[in-house]
Design a protein that fits this description.
The complex is a heterodimer.
Chain A lengths: L8 H31 L11 H4 L9 H6 L17 H32 L6 H13 L2 H14 L6 H25 L4 H8 L4 H29 L3 H6 L7 H10 L5 H30 L6
Chain B lengths: L5 H4 L10 H41 L4 H6 L1 H8 L9 H13 L2 H14 L3 H11 L7 H8 L6 H10 L6 H6 L2 E3 L5 E3 L7 H32 L2 H16 L2 H12 L4 H8 L15 H25 L4 H8 L4 H29 L3 H6 L7 H10 L4 H25 L9
Antiparallel strand pairs in B: 1-2
Helix pairs in contact in B: 2-20, 4-5, 6-7, 11-12, 11-15, 11-17, 12-15, 15-17, 16-17, 17-20, 19-20
Classes of the chains: A mainly alpha, B mainly alpha.
Chain lengths: 296, 419
C-alpha cells in the first residue's frame, strides 16, 4: 500500500484522502467503545463529559460507579447511592450460568452435527446445513416469539431450563460453522491410519481427530458463549423475574434509571471482549500451525 | 490370478468371500448411517426447540378456531339470519346459551378477538356476560336491557368475518387492510394506517444501512487485504472488537457519543462548527437507528469482502497496468469484478440482519426510528394481538428466507466463516 516514489501529486492527494477515509471508518468502529472507558470514571451522576473532566481535574474522577456495580455503596453518601443494589452481580452470575451450560450443550451437539455433515456420504447435506445455521438468520424477535408461545405450552417459560435450551439453539450454528471449517483441512487418511494400527473409532476420534479440530470447537464455543452471555431478546420474552441476567439489567438500566454504573459494566465487558478476541486470535494461529499452514 | 481362473470371469471378491461391489455398497451404507446418526441428535433438537415453535407460531397468524369454539350456537343462528332484518330472538337465545356455557377466560379471549373485527365488542360482551346468570327469556329484551348496543346490526354483521376457522385477516391488518362485513378487502381508515409506513421504513433503513456499510467497508477491506500481514492483523482488531462487544454496551456507547450533550455535539460546538443552540439531534430518531445499525453491522460487511479480496492475486492489477490501463481503470475493470462475490455476501448478510432488528431501534430509534420488529414485539408483549404479531413475523420471515435462499445459491452456506 506504500505510495511509489514516482507518484504524481494527484495520486498523492488521492492516497492521503483514501488513508484518511480508512482511519475515519476504523475510528467510527472503535471510538464509541473507547469513549466509554474514561467516562466510566466520572464522579458526576450524568452520562456526559463534564468540563472538569476535560480539564483533567482529579476531583471529577472517581470509582464510585465501579463500587456501585460491585454492590459496595455503604460509603457513598449522596442521593445517587440509593439506586445502588446488587442486581448487576447477581445478573452477571445468572448470565454466566446460562452461558456456560448452553455453551457446553451447543459445543457437543454442534460438533456432532459438523462431524456428520462433513462426511462425504451424508444425505441431504446442503439442506440440513442450511437448517442447522438458520437460527443465525431468523431474526431473534421471531425466534423469541415462537419460543414464548411454545414454552408456555410445555411449561418451560420462566424456567432456567427453557432459557438454556433456547441459548443452546442460538449457539449451535456457530459451532457447526467453525468445526466444519476446521474439518475441511482435516486429513482423513489419519483416521484410516489409526484404524489400521488397531484403534477403535472412538479411540481414534479422541486421540486423533479431536485434538486437531479442538481449535474449531473452542472458537465455536467462544462465539456460543458470548452470544448467550449477551443475549437480550429471548430473555425478555421467555424469562421471568427470576431470570434476571446481566443484559436484562443493562436493558432496564438504559430504559429506566440510566446511571454511570452501566458505563462501568460496559468498560468491564469491553475488556472482556478484548480478552476473548486475543484468545481467539491465539487459537487461530495455533490451528494454522498445527495444520501446517504458516501465515504469510 | 492364473492360479484361480474361475474367479476372473465372476465378480471381484473380497477376502471374506463377499462380492466387492456388495461389500463396498455395504460400507457406503454404513458410513451413511454413521453420518446420519451423528447428525440426528442435533437435528432433532433443532426441530423440537426451534423449527416446531416457529412453525407453531406461524399457524397462529391464520388461526380463528377459538371464537368458533366459544360461540357455536351463535354462528349457527347467524347462518340462518338474512343479514338485513333486525336480529331476532333465536339469535339472542343462541348467544345466551353460548355465553352461559363458555368458560369465563375463553369468553375474555374471544371478546378480544371480536374487538379486532369491530371495536366495542369487548365491552359489550363483558357487560352482558356479567348479567348472564340472571337473564330470563325473552332474551332479546334481556340483552337490550343489559346493553342497548345489541340492537346495532353492525355487531351482528361483523360475526361474518369470524365465522371461518381460518382467517387471512391478520395478514390484511399487517398491511393496513381489513375485511368489511361482507369479507371484502378494504383499506383501513387513514388515521389507523401504521403498518405500511413501518414496512416501508424497515426496507428503507435496511437498504440505507446496507449501502452505508458497503461504502465504508469496501475501502477498509481493500486496505486490510493489501497491507502487510502484521499491520493488517492489528487493524483487524479494530474491526473485530465491536463485533465481540456486547450489543447493549455498544448502544450505551453510542448514546454517549450522539446524545444532545454527547461527545460528537460537544466536539462540533467546541470546534465552532455548530452553535450551542443548534446541536444536532442524532439520537432517538431515524438518524440514530441508521448510524448505530451501520456501526453494528459494519464488520459483517468488512469480513466477507476482505476474505474475497485476500484471494485476489495482486499480479492481475499489475498485468492490467502493464497492458496500458491506468490504475483507476485497472481497479474498476479488473479488481472490482472479482470482489463481487464478497460484496454480494456482505450485502445480503447485512440486509438480512438489518431487516429483523429490534433492540437497537427500540433503544435509540425514538418514535420515527422504529421498525417492524418493534411492532412484532409490541403486539407480543403489550397489545397481546398475537395473531397480528404472528402475521407480521411470518411476512418478515418469508422475506428473510428468500434472501437466505439466494445467499445459499450464490455463496453457499458452507462458505460462511466466522472471525
Amino acid at each position: 500500500m506504500a505510495l511509489p516514489i514516482y507518484a504524481t501529486t494527484g495520486q498523492r492527494i488521492w492516497h492521503y484522502l483514501y488513508m484518511a477515509f480508512c482511519v475515519f471508518v476504523l475510528f467510527f468502529l472503535v471510538a464509541p467503545l473507547i469513549a466509554v472507558i474514561p467516562l466510566s470514571f466520572t464522579s458526576s451522576p450524568f452520562l456526559n463529559f463534564t468540563p472538569e473532566m476535560l480539564s483533567l481535574d482529579p476531583d471529577a474522577f472517581s470509582v464510585r460507579w465501579y463500587k456501585s456495580l460491585f454492590g459496595m455503596c455503604g460509603d457513598v453518601e449522596d442521593a445517587a447511592s440509593t439506586m445502588c443494589h446488587n442486581k448487576w452481580m447477581t445478573g452477571a452470575g445468572r448470565s454466566l450460568y446460562y452461558a456456560v451450560i448452553s455453551t457446553a450443550l451447543a459445543t457437543f451437539l454442534g460438533t456432532l452435527a459438523a462431524l456428520g455433515l462433513s462426511s462425504e456420504h451424508m444425505p441431504a447435506k446442503r439442506s440440513i446445513m442450511a437448517l442447522m445455521i438458520s437460527p443465525l438468520i431468523v431474526p431473534l424477535i421471531i425466534t423469541a416469539a415462537g419460543m414464548a408461545f411454545f414454552f408456555a405450552k410445555v411449561n418451560l417459560s420462566n424456567t432456567d431450563a427453557g432459557i438454556i435450551l433456547a441459548y443452546t439453539i442460538l449457539g449451535m450454528p456457530f459451532v457447526v460453522i467453525t468445526v466444519t471449517s476446521t474439518l475441511v483441512g482435516f486429513d482423513r487418511s489419519l483416521m484410516r491410519a489409526g484404524a489400521n494400527l488397531g484403534g477403535t473409532p472412538a479411540y481414534n476420534f479422541f486421540k486423533i481427530q479431536m485434538p486437531l479440530i479442538a481449535p474449531g470447537m473452542i472458537s465455536g464455543a467462544l462465539f456460543a458463549f458470548i452470544t448467550a452471555f449477551d443475549e437480550i431478546v429471548i430473555i425478555l420474552f421467555i424469562g421471568g423475574p427470576d431470570q434476571h441476567t446481566l443484559p436484562r439489567q443493562m436493558w432496564s438500566g438504559i430504559r429506566q434509571e440510566i446511571s454511570p454504573t452501566i458505563l462501568s459494566a460496559a468498560t468491564i465487558l469491553v475488556l472482556f471482549s478484548v480478552i476473548l478476541l486475543t484468545t481467539l486470535e491465539l487459537l487461530r494461529r495455533r490451528s494454522e500451525r498445527l495444520r501446517g499452514i504458516t501465515p504469510h | 490370478m492364473s492360479a484361480a481362473p474361475e474367479t476372473v470371469s465372476g465378480p471381484l471378491i473380497t477376502a471374506d468371500g463377499i462380492p466387492l461391489k456388495e461389500s463396498l455398497q455395504k460400507s457406503l451404507r454404513r458410513s451413511k448411517i454413521r453420518a446420519a446418526l451423528l447428525v440426528a441428535p442435533p437435528l432433532l433438537f433443532l426441530i423440537f426447540v426451534f423449527v416446531i415453535p416457529i412453525g407453531n407460531m406461524l399457524t397462529r397468524s391464520v388461526d380463528d378456531k377459538l371464537i368458533n369454539q366459544v360461540l357455536p350456537n351463535t354462528f349457527e343462528a347467524f347462518e340462518s339470519w338474512d343479514k338485513v332484518s333486525e336480529p331476532d330472538e333465536s339469535m339472542f337465545e343462541a348467544m345466551y346459551q353460548d355465553l352461559k356455557a363458555a368458560d369465563k377466560t375463553d369468553i375474555g379471549k374471544a371478546s378480544v378477538r371480536m374487538n379486532y373485527a369491530k371495536p366495542g365488542w369487548r365491552s359489550l360482551i363483558k357487560r352482558t356476560a356479567r348479567k348472564i346468570k340472571k337473564m330470563e327469556p325473552p332474551y332479546k329484551e334481556a340483552f337490550l336491557q343489559a346493553d342497548d348496543r345489541w340492537i346495532d346490526g353492525e355487531f351482528w354483521l361483523s360475526l361474518g368475518i369470524m365465522k371461518d376457522k381460518r382467517t387471512f385477516g391478520y395478514y390484511l391488518n399487517a398491511v393496513d387492510r381489513t375485511y368489511d362485513f361482507d369479507k371484502n378487502v378494504i383499506h383501513v381508515d387513514e388515521e389507523r394506517k401504521v403498518y405500511n409506513l413501518l414496512w416501508w421504513r424497515t426496507i428503507q433503513v435496511s437498504i440505507i444501512v446496507t449501502l452505508a456499510c458497503l461504502l465504508l467497508a469496501y475501502p477498509v477491506a481493500y486496505l486490510l487485504a493489501t497491507l502487510p500481514m502484521r499491520i493488517a492483523n492489528l487493524l483487524m482488531i479494530c474491526v473485530l472488537m465491536p463485533f465481540w462487544t456486547s450489543l447493549l454496551v455498544r448502544i450505551v456507547a453510542w448514546m454517549i457519543m450522539l446524545q444532545q450533550n454527547g461527545v460528537v455535539n460537544d466536539t462540533l460546538v467546541a470546534a465552532g462548527i455548530l452553535s450551542d443552540e443548534n446541536r444536532l439531534a442524532m439520537m432517538y430518531n431515524f438518524n440514530g437507528t441508521v448510524i448505530v445499525m451501520t456501526q453494528i453491522l459494519l464488520p459483517f460487511m468488512i469480513l466477507p469482502i476482505f476474505s474475497v479480496m485476500k484471494t485476489i492475486p495482486p499480479s492481475y492489477m499489475k498485468a492490467a497496468q502493464n497492458l496500458g490501463a491506468t490504475p483507476t481503470l485497472a481497479f474498476i475493470r479488473v479488481y472490482m469484478p472479482q470482489t463481487i462475490p464478497g460484496i454480494g455476501a456482505g450485502c445480503i448478510l447485512v440486509f438480512i440482519v438489518a431487516i429483523g432488528y429490534y433492540i437497537t431501534p427500540e433503544l435509540v430509534g425514538g418514535k420515527d426510528g422504529r421498525l417492524i420488529g418493534n411492532m412484532v414485539a409490541y403486539h407480543m408483549q403489550r397489545s397481546l394481538n398475537w395473531g397480528l404479531a404472528a402475521a407480521m413475523g411470518t411476512i418478515l420471515l418469508i422475506v428473510i428466507l428468500i434472501f437466505y435462499w439466494i445467499y445459499d445459491k450464490i455463496i453457499g452456506i458452507d462458505n460462511m466463516k466466522m472471525g
